[in-house]
Amino acid sequence: MPGFVFSSVFGLFLIHLDLFVAALRAGQGPALNLPIGTILQPGELDVFGIILYSILTLMAAVSLLVYLEESVYVYRKVPSPKKTTIIWVSGAAPVIATMSCLGLWIPKAIMFTDMTSASYFAIVVYKFLILMLEECGGEEEFLRRCAQDRFRISTGPCCCCCPCLPHVPVTRRTLTILKFGSLQFALLKTVFTILSIVLWTNGNYDLSDLTITGTAIWINPFVGVLTIIALWPVAIMFMNLRNTLRSQKIIPKYAMYQLVLVLSQLQTAIINILALNGAIACAPPFSSQVRGYLMSQQLLILEMFIITLVNRALYRRHYDNLPAADQHEKDNADNATIILHSKNGDNMA
Question: What is the b/e burial string over 327-341, where b = at least 16 CB atoms within 10 angstroms of the residue's CB?
Fold first, then answer.
């Protein structure tokens, strides 16, 4: 199921990307006649640009309002600490949509808005792992429920092609390692974001500088490795709990989490690479790179708006506790007792 969802999402993304690149090569898109770095004004857009920017701004505003209403409901109806985790996880799409809207109106701030979105999603990666534990009733309940199970670690994105890897017993030490694997990304991503901003203000950070002496060529691949390491523990935990948490809709929740990952990270990276290589036509006063960034923000607002609505249906609901881990064993024991008593009654008769 997760593989099917990921393939479908990636296929949809490729279709969007093909249409997007084709439109750019045809020279389509709003004509923006203003200096780069200023705030866009309605009078500086043509009719198509006014309609497009108005709709996208409305989508971003609605996404934020829907998230705020959902957060109030979760805060009132769901016990702590589960409610805090749900609010963090469900906020990924509206936060990205809001930051993309800001980047759309203030083109020079795109690097800051992208870094803010990426840093928030880094925290969401860790919070989603915690969410699965909270859905089980907490860390202690998870360890008690899965004490006899083993983690299957031959899963994506690191070791999906290594089925020979042994299964790891579920222990407190193993769980701590998995949590640290995701937590390191939330911490180090924020550190590298601050470092990148500091270097950028000093003129030492340029995404278009791909030489060996450039800072971006060193920072970005390292952050990519940290991302893969952080996604692996989440995938391991999901593979172990997807059947247990099926009643908590963990599969569609995980699908939405993956969708946000693909669209906000992979899609944006591909568009930026195309822009850096000049595959996206320039539209004065915007260069190919800036125009690619703007188009990326427009796509993200639309996509995150849809995901926000889906997440509202998944997270804004009444949460029931999972049945006890030994519920089936208790039922079987009760049935065996009833059958035994029935046989003894027949023998006495």
Answer: eeeeeeeeeeeeeee
